[in-house]
Amino acid sequence: MKVAPFPLFDRQARFVAASLAGRLWLPSRQQMLEAIREELEACADPRHFHVFAAAQWSYNDRLAEMIGCEPLCPVVRSLYEAVCPHRTNNLLGYRSQTFKIVDRQTFVNI
Questions:
Q1: N or C: which end of the chain has fewer CB within 10 A?
Q2: Above 90 in pLDDT, residue 30?
């Protein structure tokens, strides 16, 4: 929850593909369960365990590093963070905005 979904889905799909192709080895079941337990204990409210918000960027970076692909362009984060307040304040109208990505760092509202 609270993520830029398609960049996240892309990185996760690449992670699964790398694992299935044998280019990436998963930790043991016990290690994964232990990591989940630690994350749940660190979570202030377990009902919001899947709320990524700002944590999505480091998660995407970790996935990219593990699978050997480039991290997301900085403009993806900038654009997401620029649109978030509009989505919160104007749920029905925020999608009418149009943006153009100029380069890896910059976008403009057109």
A1: C
A2: yes
